[in-house]
Design brief:
This protein has 13 helices and no strands.
Length: 279
């Protein structure tokens, strides 16, 4: 498994799309710092940290990371088929499920790196602006956790990408719809005020992660509007154990299905190539 992961990582040297996608985590924080007047309205370092990190959690993770994961997964899942390497894999004792899992682990590392890069960009902006980064590292590690949750939440679309077998346009359309739904549901009280259980407020990554990371923000002196919102949603906050238990269960299910689809597609593709060579 480690050898497969190393081989997948080695391919990235020829794939600048991965590095560009990771660097895109800086786009929204930089845009907020340069163009939003609210950035200049912070009154303390702690408030500035929470404002910048909230932007990373609410926008970069949903609107950039999740679609990027599916696009990169589509590339990883089909790269051997595109270059005709499946026939070589069919002649070597390579486990297709293990190969699929190596690709998924690489995507997980990418998701963590994406959130880490965005957090460090935020830290640089705060320091250059003269703010003391009070509470930054606590929210930085929350951001890494959200990267893991976004990876887990993207697995249904990755499964779809594997099952559609290079139908990139359809995959992109469905991923866009899925991303928008998660973003909107994560801001909708109807979905963030559902109990922990089998419901959309728990199963979808948008509302689930909001109910987790929001509890880590400093809400000791909220405005009147925020205090009213907290009174309604705070009973539905999720603990770290609850969030990762739900995400872990979903991850096991979807990784198993991805491995199954990839094995069937890989074996059929490898066999067809081998037969054509003999003919």
């Amino acid at each position: 498994m480690l050898d497969l992961l190393y081989c997948e990582a080695a391919k990235l040297r020829r794939r600048p799309l991965f590095f560009f996608s990771a660097a895109s985590s800086a786009l929204i924080p930089l845009g907020c710092a340069l163009f939003l007047p609210d950035f200049q309205g912070f009154t303390s370092g702690a408030q500035a940290v929470e404002g910048m990190m909230s932007t990373l959690f609410q926008m970069s993770a949903y609107l950039i990371l999740m679609p990027a994961l599916v696009v990169l997964a589509s590339h990883l899942l089909f790269v051997e088929q595109d270059c005709g390497a499946l026939k070589n894999l069919a002649a070597v004792p390579v486990s297709y499920p293990a190969l699929a899992m190596a690709k998924m682990v690489l995507l997980l590392l990418f998701a963590i790196a994406f959130m880490a890069a965005g957090g460090l960009v935020n830290l640089g902006i705060l320091l250059l602006s003269g703010w003391e980064p009070v509470g930054f590292w606590r929210l930085f590690f929350v951001g890494l956790g959200q990267g893991i949750l976004m990876w887990s939440g993207s697995l249904p679309c990755i499964l779809l990408a594997a099952a559609l077998d290079q139908s990139y346009m359809i995959t992109v359309i469905i991923t866009f719809f899925y991303t928008v739904v998660n973003y909107l549901f994560g801001m909708n009280e109807q979905f963030i005020t559902q109990p922990f259980g089998i419901n959309l407020g728990t199963l979808l990554p948008g509302p689930m992660t909001f109910r987790w990371y929001f509890s880590y923000l400093d809400l000791t002196t909220p405005s009147a509007e925020m205090a009213s919102l907290l009174e309604r949603i705070s009973p539905y906050f999720l603990s770290t154990a609850q969030v990762f238990l739900a995400a872990g269960a979903e991850t096991v299910v979807f990784l198993s299905l991805i491995a199954l689809v990839f094995r069937r597609r890989g074996c059929s593709g490898g066999v067809s190539h081998v037969e054509s060579d003999h003919q």
